[in-house]
Design goal:
The complex is a heterodimer of chains A (about 190) and B (about 325). Chain A has about 190 residues and is mostly helical. Helix content of chain A is about 80%, strand content about 0%. Chain A has helices at about 1-20, 25-45, 50-75, 85-110, 125-135, 140-165, 170-185. With about 325 residues, chain B is mainly alpha-helical. Chain B has two domains: about 1-65; about 65-335, no CATH class. Chain B has a two-stranded antiparallel sheet. The N and C termini of chain B lie far apart (about 40 Å). Classes of the chains: A mainly alpha (about 190), B mainly alpha (about 325).
């Protein structure tokens, strides 16, 4: 039962990832990525990591991908012409892909001898997850969050620098328009 | 319990919940028209059936019989997907909501809940965060500027207030020490309702919940004065009805969560014979949920709409810092206890 579900969602995840690559319109690509994230969340759930599963949905599907879809909508990005076929990609990419596939298959076969738990025999409660995050791995966790903070600050600095540059007259008028509209609404 | 019995029981429970939910939606909508009517010195619908009680049925027939229009230049697949997504996600979160303790019906003992998972509250937050897609995709795929503007407003509003919503729930979660909705209610036994220690979180949750469900005073995504009907301007007939349904189901879900997390769920004084002990908890639960639903309608009849920049500033500069401060204070108290 669990294995069947696991395989169904594994196929869904891979199909979503392939669909992401072959879709012409960016919004369909973004939505296939959402489907991939969702399928992965279900896989986590079947593997017994319920907290991670729902965090996956909340963070990736609910926050990050929404922003992607948002940007695509605001930019009103249309269909993208397929990239010209590159010979380098074919010569280097395909062998690397084959090598990667062999590595993955080897890993999977290597894992067969080890002691294994069946699907559905293992469940991680939320408490232990929090304990390992904020107790055992506190330093890496905090360092990672500082890393994110640096990223955010960098984005703010870049945006502020662009703002200081002298604006052409039209851009300035556009910037003032919302204010005027807001004043009108009052 | 055998697998077949389990599936049959689950199916029966699902159908019952669905029936109750859809009926509730129909009559909340009627109650809203009636109550808002009274607040504005009107009488509301009275013609269909006694006291207008069959109005929802008439509305449903109208929704089904109306012409279903798909605008030119719409992205057809997403245009059809968006309302389906909205309804499915709205219905999904009701699965983890317990409406009472365990009861024994015809000799089968069952919990008054479709499924009790350890991270029930997270499921609701996850589904809420996915709810943005219904709004955003509907607005974008309609290929209309009103829809797009409504979707942009709705999307950014829902993302912003989701943060405050989640942070407000962290306080009660810490006090209860569990993410299971049933566990949270059981932690509030003997009238130790979390609204008392978490009064700040309660009001943050309430405000954010109004914004999440796009209701007045936060209904900017469908501000009819400026945007037609916002993200569902181009939708008609059943597709519009699906957005309508999703909005009201979301209202019910949000009210249920408020009841479970802050008002002790089905907890209340028990008295009388044994059968009353089984019925009373569910009655308490329904009364508390109805209070929140009435609050929705009351606020709709009372408050004006926010301005968009005020809405964003209020969310990010007031609610989120307040919710963070609440989390810090609560964790301090829990740590020192």
């Amino acid at each position: 039962m669990q294995l069947t579900l696991f395989l169904i969602f594994a196929v869904l995840a891979v199909a979503g990832a392939i669909n992401l690559l072959i879709q012409r319109h960016p919004i369909y690509s973004a939505l296939s990525l959402v489907a991939v994230m969702f399928a992965l969340a279900v896989e986590y759930l079947i593997l017994g990591a319920e907290f991670i599963a729902f965090i996956q949905v909340i963070v990736y599907a609910g926050a990050i991908m929404v922003l992607f879809v948002f940007v695509i909508m605001v930019l009103n990005a249309g269909e993208v012409a397929p990239a010209p076929k590159s010979r380098v990609a074919a010569w280097i990419g395909l062998p690397v892909l084959a090598l990667f596939a062999i590595l993955v298959i080897g890993q999977v076969y290597g894992a067969f001898g080890a002691t294994q738990l069946g699907l559905g025999e293992y469940l991680v409660q939320t408490g232990p997850v929090g304990n390992s995050l904020f107790h055992d791995f506190l330093l890496p966790f905090e360092v990672t969050s500082v890393l994110f903070l640096v990223g955010v600050l960098g984005a703010v600095v870049l945006a502020a620098r662009q703002d200081k540059a002298p604006k052409p007259a039209i851009a300035q008028a556009e910037a003032e328009e919302p204010k005027a509209m807001a004043a009108g609404q009052r | 319990m055998s697998t077949v019995a389990f599936f049959v029981l689950s199916l029966v429970k699902c159908l019952i919940v669905l029936f109750i939910l859809l009926t509730a939606v129909a009559y909340i909508q009627l109650a809203e028209r009636k109550i808002v009517g009274r607040m504005q010195s009107r009488v509301g619908p009275t013609r269909v059936g006694p006291f207008g009680l069959l109005q929802p049925a008439a509305d449903a027939v109208k929704f089904i019989l109306k012409e279903d229009v798909t605008p030119d230049g719409a992205h057809k697949f997403l245009y059809i997907l968006a309302p389906i997504l909205a309804v499915v996600l709205a219905l999904l979160s009701i699965t983890v909501i317990p409406i009472g303790g365990t009861v024994t019906v015809f000799g089968i003992q069952t919990a008054l809940q479709l499924t009790d998972i350890n991270v029930g509250l997270l499921l609701i937050l996850g589904v809420t965060s996915l709810g943005v897609y219904g709004v955003v995709l509907a607005g974008w795929s309609s290929n209309s500027k009103y829809s797009l503007l409504g979707a942009l407003r709705g999307g950014s509003q829902m993302i912003s207030y989701e943060l405050a919503l989640g942070l407000a729930l962290i306080g009660p979660i810490m006090l209860a020490g569990t993410l299971s909705l049933r566990g949270i209610v059981e932690a509030q036994a003997h009238l130790h309702w979390f609204i008392v220690p978490e009064i700040v979180a309660f009001f943050i949750y309430l405000t954010a919940a109004f914004a999440e469900t796009n209701r007045i005073p936060f209904d900017l995504p469908e501000a009819e004065g400026e945007l037609g009907a916002g993200y569902h301007t181009e939708y008609s007939a059943m597709k519009f009805a699906m957005f309508f349904l999703a909005e009201y189901v979301n209202m019910i879900t949000v009210s249920c969560v408020a009841t479970l997390v802050f008002l002790g769920g089905w907890m209340g004084p028990l008295f009388g014979p044994t059968w009353l002990h089984m019925v009373l908890p569910t009655v308490y639960f329904i009364v508390k949920v109805c209070f929140f639903l009435f609050l929705y309608i009351w606020v709709r009849g009372t408050l004006p709409r926010f301005r968009y920049d005020q809405l964003m500033a209020f969310g990010w500069k007031v609610l989120v810092p307040l919710a963070l401060a609440n989390v810090m204070v609560t964790s301090l108290v829990v740590a020192l206890r």
